[in-house]
């Protein structure tokens, strides 16, 4: 090609150029899009697209006929100082509620960083690119501190370990494994997939109980209103008439008096639960017992076991794919289930595996998880495809949890409506019983 611009570094100046770019969406990395953007340099072009939530795959520079890897172009310009962000962009990006880092932002951070590292961009440069594309100023500050730590000689795993409360402990373990095995990009990709699956199952649980929770609040609100404002008015009328009230009406009036005059006693109801929660947190023995008993609760115990299976299978698959040894993976996987009883069982299984026993056989012998899962694990071990079968188990039980939550929601909604109708109907009937009796007496007297 006789193009005089070919092979020259991207131009930087005040005159904007039109760049054609291939990008991937933040929420759908598998979808490739073509966009056109005006910028004064290749760096500014890439940074602006990252700031809009895109992953930049390739860029066609002005005067060039072919697309070139964005990673290659940005790396070529690494020696030049990065263009300073405009004040207007800084002001806009500061409009963020709170100072937290969401799960979605962590997932996108892992995806971006993995993509850049796979493209051959050095870690420090990759962190700087990701920081510029992050809209959350608080997260930008965290990434900047991580970059400084890595620049000062710390490992990436140690740098994120210092950011307590931001990165889950699973991140630290996998990142350290990735650095030690030279598979950091792959580990980051596995982290993103694991956290995506974990967030998905958590979202399903929250969604399933959202509507019943709203109905519960509505029942409590309606009940409180009736007992505080409506029942006392009827009670005053009954006292003026010196009527002998039915037992149901007396009970409702007594409940109204309790709520109006002794509301502080109702505030003591949560105290035993708060104390129990404190004991569960502080005492491993009580936590073990309570978690064991919860697994025996009808419906909810079965759902908890299935959710634990999903967490364990997804976590083990991620750990093994990242190069973690099976004993270390079992130790981490035991904590991922978030149940002391199951955690103790998995740790006992780990002792058997350490002695040369198979994972599936040990899980089945100790009855930690359902037989169907343990049989699949045994097949996976026999065929040398344990990670693949763990993925299959995670997908299968996630679908079962989804179906279970759908059925549970379908059952809870009419049950809550019936309870709401019975509670309010009981109060209404209790108030009208004396009135009906008074009307009947008046009619007989006439």
Query: Unreliable segments (pLDDT under 50, ≥5 consecutive)?
Result: 1-13, 74-98
Output the number of helix runs: 19
Kindly name the structural category: mainly alpha
What's the alpha carbon Rg, rounded to whole Å? 31 Å
Q: How many DSSP E strands?
A: 4
Q: Could you tell me the strand content as a percent range?
A: 5-15%
Largest sheet: 4 strands, antiparallel
Instruction: Give average pLDDT, whole number.
Output: 79
Instruction: State the end-to-end CA separation.
Output: 114 Å
The helicity comes to over 70%
Features:
446 residues, mainly alpha, 19 helices, 6% strand
Please tell me about this protein's structure:
- The protein is mainly α and 446 residues long.
- Among the domains are: 17-77; 201-392, no CATH class.
- 70% of the residues lie in helices and 6% in strands.
- It has 19 helices and four strands.
- The protein has helices spanning 42-51, 70-76, 87-93, 103-118, 123-132, 137-151, 156-161, 169-181, 184-241, 247-261, 263-266, 270-282, 284-294, 300-321, 326-336, 340-354, 359-365, 371-383, 386-445, and strands at 17-25, 32-39, 54-60, 68-69.
- Strands 2-1-3-4 form a four-stranded antiparallel sheet.
- A hairpin with a 6-residue loop joins strand 1 (17-25) and strand 2 (32-39).
- It is extended, with a radius of gyration of 31 Å.
- It starts with 16 loop residues before the first strand and ends with a helix.
């Amino acid at each position: 090609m006789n193009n005089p611009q070919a092979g020259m570094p991207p131009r930087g100046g005040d005159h904007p150029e039109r760049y054609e770019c291939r990008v991937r969406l933040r929420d759908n990395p598998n979808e490739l899009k073509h966009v056109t953007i005006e910028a004064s340099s290749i760096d500014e072009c890439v940074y602006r697209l990252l700031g809009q939530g895109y992953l930049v795959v390739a860029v066609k520079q002005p005067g060039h006929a072919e697309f070139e890897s964005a990673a290659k172009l940005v790396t070529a310009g690494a020696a030049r100082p990065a263009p300073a962000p405009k004040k207007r962009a800084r002001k806009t990006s500061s409009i963020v509620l709170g100072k937290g880092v969401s799960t979605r932002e962590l997932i996108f951070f892992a995806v971006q960083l993995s993509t850049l590292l796979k493209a051959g961009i050095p870690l420090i440069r990759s962190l700087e690119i990701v920081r510029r594309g992050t809209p959350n100023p608080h997260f930008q500050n965290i990434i900047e501190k991580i970059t400084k730590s890595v620049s000062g000689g710390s490992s990436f795993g140690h740098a994120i370990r210092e950011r307590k409360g931001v990165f889950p402990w699973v991140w630290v373990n996998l990142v350290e494994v990735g650095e030690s095995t030279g598979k950091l990009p792959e580990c980051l990709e596995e982290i993103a997939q694991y956290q995506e699956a974990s967030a998905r199952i958590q979202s399903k649980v929250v969604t399933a109980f959202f509507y019943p929770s709203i109905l519960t609040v509505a029942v409590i609100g309606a009940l409180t209103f009736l007992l505080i404002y409506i029942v006392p008015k009827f009670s005053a009328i009954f006292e003026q008439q010196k009527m002998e009230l039915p037992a149901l009406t007396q009970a409702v009036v007594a409940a109204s008096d309790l709520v109006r005059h002794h509301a502080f006693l109702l505030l003591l109801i949560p105290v035993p639960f708060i104390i129990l929660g404190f004991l569960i947190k502080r005492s491993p023995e009580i936590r073990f017992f309570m978690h064991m008993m919860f697994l025996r609760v009808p419906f909810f115990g079965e759902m908890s076991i299935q959710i634990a299976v999903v967490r364990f299978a997804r976590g083990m698959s991620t750990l093994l794919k990242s190069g973690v040894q099976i004993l270390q993976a079992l130790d981490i996987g035991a904590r991922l289930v978030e149940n002391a009883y199951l955690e103790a069982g998995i740790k006992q299984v780990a002792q058997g595996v350490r002695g040369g026993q198979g994972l599936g056989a040990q899980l089945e012998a100790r009855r930690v998880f359902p037989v169907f899962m343990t049989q699949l694990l045994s097949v996976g071990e026999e065929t040398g495809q344990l990670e693949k079968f763990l993925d299959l188990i995670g997908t299968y039980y996630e679908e079962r949890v989804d179906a279970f939550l759908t059925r549970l929601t379908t059952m809870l909604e009419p049950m809550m409506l019936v309870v709401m109708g019975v509670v309010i109907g009981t109060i209404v009937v209790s108030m009208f019983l004396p009135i009906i009796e008074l009307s009947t007496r008046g009619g007989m007297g006439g």
